[in-house]
Amino acid sequence: MNGHQKVVEAALEQMEAKAYRLGVQGVAVASIVYLSDPNEFSLGIRIVGRFQRPPDATKDKGDTGVNYLAVAVSKVAESFETHNPSGLTFDRQPKLGEFGYRGCVIAETDTMILLSSFSGGTEGEDVVIAWVGLDLLCKMFRGSR
Fold it and tell me: Rounded to 5 degrees, what are φ and ψ at 113?
């Protein structure tokens, strides 16, 4: 495991701890994309208690459940394209595969893009947990945010 991947894993550990403190289960994603070659990146995914919610008959009749893993990765993809936190780009419609949900936060340095995402709680909880991961990535790669 290279040094950057170790930082990604540390960010995931911090996100997992925050999620458990908030009583939230779901999926955490942390990523470093290198601007010199966007095909080269460090990525980590951590299941925090569960990666999906099965259908819930007490919700809408058509509730099919939620795949938190798919949503968390979709948030990262949206932020990577827009260079904005997921769900906060109002001048474009989400593309196929994007949901427009909040929960991924992003920062850039001169050499990399740092992304942190969570899915499993409310949008507000997801953002709070994602910030924990991004804060650690920022401290490691550009001082503090």
Answer: -110, 130
Say what the pTM is. 0.92
Sketch the domain layout of the chain as residue ranges: 3-142
Contacts of 98 (CB under 8 A, 6+ apart): 74, 77, 78
CB atoms within 10 A of CB 19: 25
Is residue 65 left, alpha or beta, with left meaning phi > 0 and alpha meaning psi from -120 to 50?
A: left
Token reading at 40: 């080269």
Q: Could you read off the pLDDT of 4-56 as tens digits, one per residue? A: 999 999 999 999 999 999 999 999 999 999 999 978 899 999 999 999 999 98
Fold of 3-142: Beta-Lactamase (3.30.450)
